[in-house]
Amino acid sequence: MDKEMRQEKALRLDGRYLRMARIWAENSYCKRRQVGALVVKNKMIISDGYNGTPSGFENVCEDDNDLTKPYVLHAEANAITKLARSHNNSEGATLYVTASPCIECAKLIIQAGIKRVVYGEKYRLDDGICLLRRAGIEVVLLDTDRINNKIDEERE
């Protein structure tokens, strides 16, 4: 298999995992934004997360003024902290997340040993992406609509 075909196959796999993260985001009770994340290592999903309140808290993310409560966990943080309670190791893994990580999640990603982040849409701030790149982590913005259209064209 030549290099171009391998890259195309890897891109399709990235698209599939990102679509799965979008589906996982549907588990979130947050009204303002639903975000999903998957941690993948050696083509196996080793953790998942979505934004929401900590375990044992009421599943309401926004206060009476529709502002996000300060203790709501981001999808990335949820997925990474789940790893701490498992026997899995995220060293060298890829994180698929529906929105680009904030600076706080970027710090967790770096400390977790994740080496690659694939995201589907930009968060309003880019400081998290800048920090990840500074740490040598590969960061990829993936346009899944473009990939899906290309796959559909090839099937016709």
Automatic annotation (TrEMBL):
The UniProt entry's sequence similarity note says: Belongs to the cytidine and deoxycytidylate deaminase family.
Q: What is this protein called?
A: Cytidine and deoxycytidylate deaminase zinc-binding region
Which GO molecular function annotations are given, in alphabetical order? dCMP deaminase activity; zinc ion binding
Task: Please name the source species.
Answer: Hallella bergensis DSM 17361
Positions contributing to Zn(2+) binding: 74, 102, 105
Per UniProt, the keywords (alphabetical) are: Hydrolase, Metal-binding, Zinc
- PROSITE patterns given in the database record: CYT_DCMP_DEAMINASES_1, CYT_DCMP_DEAMINASES_2
Active site per UniProt: 76 (proton donor)
